[in-house]
Write a structure and sequence with these properties.
The chain is α+β, with helices and mostly antiparallel strands and about 400 residues long. The chain contains ten helices and 13 strands. The protein has a four-stranded mixed sheet. Strands 6-3-2-11 form a four-stranded mixed sheet, covered by helices on one side. Helix 4 crosses helix 5 and helix 7 crosses helix 9. The longest helix is centred in the first third of the chain and has 19 residues. The two termini are about 30 Å apart.
């Protein structure tokens, strides 16, 4: 028998968290190459520390995207996040770019040729998930953890909270009754701030953002509302902690409510199934739930490098499904070509739409008019209803 009454916790980190600064720069590099040539290949990793940024990785794309241009892109990303601090400044930081050409061996396995379709950029497993806990069909703890930090970031960018810095973290524990979230048992928010304000003031500024995000009556008691538990958070961002691309993969996906294949998203062009297949799995899982075929849906797909078709497509509706899972898997594969080319074509992924995904989650966001977050559409729901 599954546990129905429990407490589940998820965390989020802001755009100014060191790892997210790295993700943002890496995704800005992807966007730069896809802008110049939609068929570019990019695998970019970024390291950030005290006034130092290093970009590395492999690319194949137009020569117009020079190392000098990539350095400018990194500085622009840091400036947009809001870093103008002594220990990390968009203009003063030493930015180094050691990106080089993609391996010819990898290119040979991935490229289409003759009768061979474009193969997966690597082996691996990817997961997608959706549930009915929020209108966005996302797990509630992660959704609200993201929303708190996004609200705080908007206030900081608008000038409403000038004493807050870019670096912040949140964590929410929700109590579930009969499998449904009912209230927060604890809320943790840590935010970088200036030396001008004390911790009582920080707490007072943070509280409205939490209250505005959580459903009415869900707020925990004051004893379990933790704001800057260490007592001080002035030194933050890459000056306080080294950042690396791809270290916040659970924050990026479902906050631990679903399995994760292990591959990071940021810095990778959509030929890499670590990214595109995870988007496709979310898209299909969300449409299954949106169609009313299950309250929860987990989808796993697997690939081999250089092979176009997935090796397996597994579906688990956790006992909430209204249709046979084997048949559901068959129907979904008929509705969507899950080869790398098929995914990119169906979701129109060869566009510069990735820098915006680097913070506050890759899922649970409204689709953008220019094609961003296309994997959040529920345009298959009606067809799925008819199929069953």
């Amino acid at each position: 028998m599954s546990l129905r009454d429990y407490v589940f916790t998820s965390e989020s980190v802001s755009e100014g968290h060191p790892d997210k600064v790295s993700d943002r720069i890496s995704d800005a590099v992807v966007d730069a190459f896809l802008t110049a040539d939609p068929m570019s290949r990019v695998a970019c990793e970024t390291l950030c520390t005290t006034n130092r940024v290093i970009m590395a990785g492999e690319v194949r794309g137009p020569k117009s995207v020079t190392k000098e241009k990539l350095i400018e892109i990194a500085r622009a990303a840091i400036k947009d996040i809001g870093y103008e601090q002594d220990g990390f400044h968009w203009k003063k930081a030493n930015v180094e770019c050691i990106v080089h050409e993609q391996s010819a061996d990898i290119a040979q396995g991935v490229d289409s040729a003759g009768n061979k379709d474009e193969g997966a950029g690597d082996q691996g497993i990817m997961f997608g998930y959706a549930c009915t806990e929020t209108p966005e069909l996302m797990p509630a703890p992660l959704y609200y953890a993201h929303a708190i930090l996004k609200s705080m970031a908007e206030a900081r960018h608008s000038g409403a909270t000038p004493d807050f810095g870019p670096d912040a973290k949140s964590q929410i524990s929700l109590e579930y009754k009969n499998g449904k979230p009912v209230r927060a048992t604890s809320v943790v928010v840590s935010t970088q701030h200036s030396e001008k304000i004390d911790q009582d003031k920080v707490r007072d500024i943070v509280r409205p953002h939490v209250l505005d995000v959580l459903p009415k009556g869900w707020m925990c008691d004051e004893d379990h509302f933790y704001v800057n538990p260490t007592g001080r958070f002035v030194i933050g961002g890459p000056d306080g902690d080294c950042g690396l691309t791809g270290r916040k993969i659970i924050v990026d996906t479902y906050g631990g409510a679903s399995p994760h294949g292990g591959g990071a998203f940021s810095g990778k062009d959509p030929s890499k199934v670590d990214r595109s297949a995870a988007y496709a799995a979310r898209y299909l899982a969300k449409n299954v739930v949106a169609a009313g075929l299950a309250e929860r849906c987990t989808i796993q797909v697997s690939y081999a490098i250089g092979v176009a078709k997935p090796l397996s497509v597994y579906i688990d509706t956790a006992g909430t499904g209204k249709v046979e899972e084997a048949k559901l898997s068959k129907v979904l594969q008929e509705m969507m070509d899950l080869s790398p080319r098929g995914i990119r074509t169906h979701l129109k992924l060869n566009r510069p739409i990735y820098a915006r995904t680097s913070s506050y989650g890759h899922f649970g966001r409204p689709p953008d008019a220019d094609g961003g977050f296309s994997w959040e559409k529920t345009d298959l729901a009606d067809s799925l209803k008819r199929a069953f």
